[in-house]
Amino acid sequence: MTGSPRSATWPPSSGSLLIENKSNFERVSAGEIEVFQGPPPAQSFDGCQLALPVCHGRWGEDGTLQGLLACYGLPVVGCGVAASAVCMDKHLTRSVLGSAGLPVARGVRIGQRDHVTDPGRVVDLVRDRVGPGPWFVKPACGGSSLGIGRADAPAGLYNALAESFRWSDAALVQEAIPHRELVLGITSRAALHAALASSQLPEEHRPSVLD
């Protein structure tokens, strides 16, 4: 967490953190950071102008940290509690986008208990709600790559769900849509500048190291 003087630079040097103390920046080593077993006292934030969360993943991006900071009256850079919570939960994201009339891939949320107690019913549910496959399986709450897999048959679906449940107590199963993925970087200072679009070749079309 940091304040926001205009002279601040980012990122700090390796092996240290840059924290806001009153109106000045201090560089501290990791050993000097205070760890709290519960909510920190309000005076811990005395002099702080705002919070800049740089935590990735669960608790840092799902609205937990944003809600804690809001309790202390600190403005937070980036998404607030509601947007963070919705966007971290893939099923909620899909529901909100679909309710707004945006096209979304067919999908269904699967709870871990259902997967353990009646895996056959889970397969039937996926086929009914999503289609015959192939399917993409991902933790309902988590990062963009952890625990994600593809399944082409029921046996693969069971294994993909088991992997997803290592990261979340619910999973999202969606239809696999043939697509071409494009990556486009956009930077901005006085005006927007777009980089050239790049695309990842399917594995069967990638050149080998001998080509």
Low-confidence stretches: 1-25
**Strand order within the widest beta sheet:** 3-6-4-5
Helix content: 25-40%
> How widely separated are the two ends?
48 Å
Radius of gyration: 22 Å
Structural summary, described in words:
This protein is an alpha+beta fold and 211 residues long. Among the domains are: 16-86, Rossmann fold (3-Layer(aba) Sandwich); 104-175, Dna Ligase, domain 1. The protein is 26% helix and 19% strand. The protein is built from six helices and ten strands. The chain has helices at residues 64-71, 81-88, 90-99, 112-117, 119-129, 154-164; strands at 16-21, 24-29, 107-111, 135-139, 149-151, 170-175, 182-183, 186-188, 192-194, 198-199. It has a four-stranded antiparallel β-sheet with strand order 3-6-4-5. Strands 1-2 form a two-stranded antiparallel ribbon. A hairpin with a 3-residue loop joins β8 (186-188) and β9. The longest helix is centred in the middle third of the chain and has 11 residues, at 119-129. The chain is globular and about 60 Å long.
Q: Which short descriptors sum up this protein?
A:
Dna Ligase, domain 1; disordered N terminus; alpha+beta; four-stranded antiparallel sheet; Rossmann fold; 19% strand
Structure, briefly:
By secondary structure, this protein is α+β, with helices and mostly antiparallel strands.
